[in-house]
Amino acid sequence: DAGVIQSPRHEVTEMGQEVTLRCKPISGHNSLFWYRQTMMRGLELLIYFNNNVPIDDSGMPEDRFSAKMPNASFSTLKIQPSEPRDSAVYFCASTFTVRQPQPQHFGDGTRLSIL
Amino acid sequence: AQKITQTQPGMFVQEKEAVTLDCTYDTSDPSYGLFWYKQPSSGEMIFLIYQGSYDQQNATEGRYSLNFQKARKSANLVISASQLGDSAMYFCAMREMNSGYSTLTFGKGTMLLVSP
User: Is the dihedral of CA A99, B75, A26, B99 positive or negative?
Assistant: First the structure.
């Protein structure tokens, strides 16, 4: 079974450039999450979608960050313009939200470096 | 107040020994789920084990078991017969069912090093 697929695995770019991270959730999952992980802050939830609708974007750091989920099988996280402090590992995770707790399944992450 | 507390920044264990990684949680929600994830040096987040607040028995998955003490609000991960490949960062997480969201709250993690 295919897990959560993220691309690219690594991204190195100069500050000021636009960065787009992509995620394909597990088929059948109806909830999708974007996380950022740094040594200083640990794992932070950026935004959460349920049935393609953004439910909670309170973790999005600022207006330079935006996320979309145009359909059930694809989501993007965009940073424009990028800054060195955005360097981190970005994870996408998905789950099937039901009455019982279900584990979130993570992609392998995108390691982003902004020079 | 932190909802998930992992008090051990790092743990050392010798190969083939058992190790317990601590996790305490704070919630007033009677319905919740507790999860453990493993993050090896390669970076991926791997789901290990899950315990529901109404589950009568402690969860087990192979060499992983969860020592769930509801009254003490603790959900410690026990790894039996440690292997070198168990060296990784381990995160405890919780989902509160009545919050209306599917979000997980993560602890800061415990780094486990298994020595030969």
Answer: positive
pLDDT digits (tens, 9 = 90+) for A21-42: 999 999 999 999 999 999 888 8
CB atoms near residue B96 (< 10 Å): 21
Percent of chain A with pLDDT over 90: 80
| Chain A interface residues (partner B, CB cutoff 8 A) | 31, 33, 42-43, 45, 48, 50, 55-56, 89, 91, 93, 95, 97, 99-109, 111
- Determine whether the interchain pair B108/A42 forms a contact, defined as Cβ–Cβ distance below 8 Å: yes
